[in-house]
Amino acid sequence: MTTDVTHNPTHRPEPLVSIRHLAKSYRRGAQTVPVLSDITLDIAEGDFIALMGPSGSGKSTLLNLIAGIDRPDSGELRVAGVDIAGLPESSLADWRAAHVGFIFQFYNLMPVLTAYENVELPLMLTRLSRQERRERVEMVLRMVNLADRMDHYPSELSGGQQQRVAIARALITDPTLIVADEPTGDLDRTSATEILAMLQRLNAEAGKTIIMVTHDAHAAEAARSLVYLEKGELLPGPR
Ligand SMILES: Nc1ncnc2c1ncn2[C@@H]1O[C@H](COP(=O)(O)OP(=O)(O)OP(=O)(O)O)[C@@H](O)[C@H]1O
């Protein structure tokens, strides 16, 4: 912490994600389908935010914009000071690989790779040696309590275990941001509770910033803050 902060009570740290007047529509043939209109939102570093709203309200679209998977039509979108809306396609892919960890509803693991190999995959694009990769993979697999399953293939793991492999894969590059789209949507209540507890721990103990889209009020309760999308507009949550 700098002395500036101590002496200036009005100081606010820069939000990790800063969104201003973001708009997005999709083209379907000759038609334009507006999805998000005028979204303004700040997400602080270290937050665990749940993004809720009815089906079709634009939650995944907003998540994909923040994660640099898709591009806005207009507005500002900065993540850790980088104007990601303005990055050319090739730089955006590099930015995503370095800064965003993804967790999906259906895990998206490679079926022909073991748990270990799935987690190692994002590191194959880095300059780390095989030994350095091994140390990191084993460390994150221990973090998600799966060190004893590293040689298993996804088909040999339960849904909850597969999602833990996916969490390990999301963590392996030490990303700036973790985005999770319905991470408990395919799990029974017990496994969902376990996954949510794990995300809470990553947030509280490892300081990871997490943005989670969910339909489930139980999942949203695990988050620190809540925003609600309706028809492409953001409403403040009750917390
Ligand atoms: N690639 C696309 N092309 C055209 N329309 C799209 C595309 N992706 C999303 N849409 C439309 O944008 C709207 C918002 O979709 P989005 O997936 O963001 O909603 P959501 O709130 O995440 O919904 P759900 O909770 O059902 O997953 C929907 O009407 C959808 O049909």
TrEMBL record:
TM ranges: none
Cross-referenced PROSITE patterns: ABC_TRANSPORTER_1 (PS00211), ABC_TRANSPORTER_2 (PS50893)
Taxonomy, superkingdom: Bacteria
Keyword terms of this UniProt record: ATP-binding, Cell inner membrane, Cell membrane, Membrane, Nucleotide-binding, Transport
A single MF term (Gene Ontology): ATP binding
Residue ranges annotated for the ABC transporter domain, each copy included: 17-239
Keyword Cell membrane found: yes
SUPFAM superfamilies xref list: P-loop containing nucleoside triphosphate hydrolases (SSF52540)
Record protein name field: ABC transporter ATP-binding protein
Lineage: Bacteria, Pseudomonadati, Pseudomonadota, Betaproteobacteria, Burkholderiales
